[in-house]
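Sequence only, no structure available. Ideas?
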Amino acid sequence: MKKIVILFYLTGICWPALSQNTEADKKALRYLKETEWPKAYREQDTLLLNRILADEFQLIDASGEVSNKRMEIEYIKTHKPSYASFVFQITRLDVFENGTAVVSGTGTIRGKDDKGEYEMTYQSSNVLIKRKGQWKAVGSHVSGVKRKKH
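Reply:
I predicted one. Tokens follow.
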């Protein structure tokens, strides 16, 4: 698909207006968030995670700790997941005209550890930008972590 760039002059500033194929973007974002991102962590695939995360990526976890792209890549190198399954259900997927997207939803992790079988859920919001035709995560926030015995 060809991108058509039209220049608008708004308050003396030149803003590019990009034509978008929103459905294709939504499909790509859904695949990235539901398939590729979990795969990177599950398989400790640092190359895949490097492609997903923008250089300026930051994550704020449920405890308020902040990490960045380098820290996340180091984390997956040294932490093999022990869960049996992980599913992310998207509840919000918005693509904006400026090449920005918000993807939010609920993650559900099922597994077994020294305390027995468990199910853990959390909420996550992600901000992504489109660079050179690829979606890159620039920010993530995790909250509402709940663990229950299964």
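The first strand starts at residue 5 and ends at 10.
Hope that gets you unstuck.
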